[in-house]
Amino acid sequence: MLQTPPAAPGMREEEIDTPALVLDLDAFEANLASMRDMLAPTGAKLRAHAKTHKSPVIAHRQIAHGAIGQCVQKVGEAEVLAWGGVPDILVSNEVVGAGKLARLVALAKIAQVAVCADDAAHVAAAEAAAEAAGIRLSMLVEIDVGGARCGVAPGPEAAALAGRIAASKHLRFGGLHAYHGSAQHLRRAEQRHFAIAAAAEGCRRTVDILRQQGLDCPIVSGGGTGTFMLEAQSGVYNEVQAGSYVFMDADYGRNLDASGQERSPFRQSLFVLATVMSASRQGLAVVDAGHKAVAVDSGLPLVAGLAGVKYVGASDEHGKLAVEGGEAPKLGQKLRLVPGHCDPTVDRYDWYVGVRNGRVECLWPIGARGMMA
Known about the structure:
The chain is an alpha/beta fold. It has ten helices and 17 strands. β7, α8 and β8 form a beta-alpha-beta unit.
C-alpha cells in the first residue's frame, strides 16, 4: 500500500506532514551539474547507481546531465527503470534463480540490459535464459578489487570466465565490473588513492590478458561517490557508478579531502523532515523520526541548521535530541535531519517531496522502493 503523499505542490515546507523525505531541488540540481562537469575532461562516463534513488524520474534527470545509463542491484529495480523508459541498465550484481533471470531477459525487449557473473554457473544459467528468450544478453565479469565480497580474482581467472562468456552464442562479453565498495568510506584521501590505484592495476592486468587472448574489453566499470575521480583518471576505468552524489549523507560528509578537511564537491540535498513531538524535559526534545524513518546503520542522523542540538538516540518511532547549547527546539517545530546513510533511508519512503525556496514544487514517486528481488 502506498503511503499517503505528505504534501502538495505550493505548500510551505512547514506544512509538510512528517516524517517525510525532502529533496532540496537547488542542491540536487547543483550535484547533477557538478558530476557532469567534473567527469567531462576525463572521458569517463557516468552510469549512475539507481540503488540510491530508486526513481525513473531521477534516472532521467541524470541522463539529461550526461549519464549513459543506470546501475541497479536487483532485477526488480531494473524492471521499474525499464518500464519507466530508462534505455540502458546494468545489474551490477549476480542474479541467481531461473525466475529472476527470466524476468531480466524479458526486459531486453524494451531496454539494453546487462548482468554480472563471477562463476561459470552464472554464465550457464544466463545462457539458458537468453536462449529461451531468443536474445543475446550482455554479461560482465565481476572482479574482486579489494572489497572481499563478490568477484573472481583479477588476471587469468577473470580472463578465463570472460572467454567462457565470449564463446556463448547467447551471451556477449560486455567487460569488467570492478567496484571497490569498502574504499568509498575510507576517511583519508591517501587511503582512497592507494586502494583505487591497486584496483586499477588489477583491472589493467586483466585487460592486458584479455587482449592477449584476442578479447576486446569494451567496459571497465566501477567507482562510487567516494572515489569516482580516481577511477575516472586511472586510464583504465571508462565508466563510474556513483549514486549517492545526488543526495549525500552524514557518512560521506565525514570523508576528508587532500587537505584533511571534511569537504565534498557535492551538497547535501536529501533530508528527513521531522516534527518535534515532545519538549517536556529540559535539555531534551523528541522528534517523530526514529528507526522506521531514518537508517542508522552508518551512524545517527545530524540535525541540520541547529547549532548545539544533536540527535542522540532512536527507537522505533522516536528520535531523541540533546540540546547542548543554543535555543531548544519547540513543540511542533519542523526540523531537517541529515541521514547517516541515504540509500536505505530512501527505501523507507514512497515519495520525494521536492522543495525550493521554502515551497513544495513537486512530488516524485520512489518507484523501486522495496525491490529486494
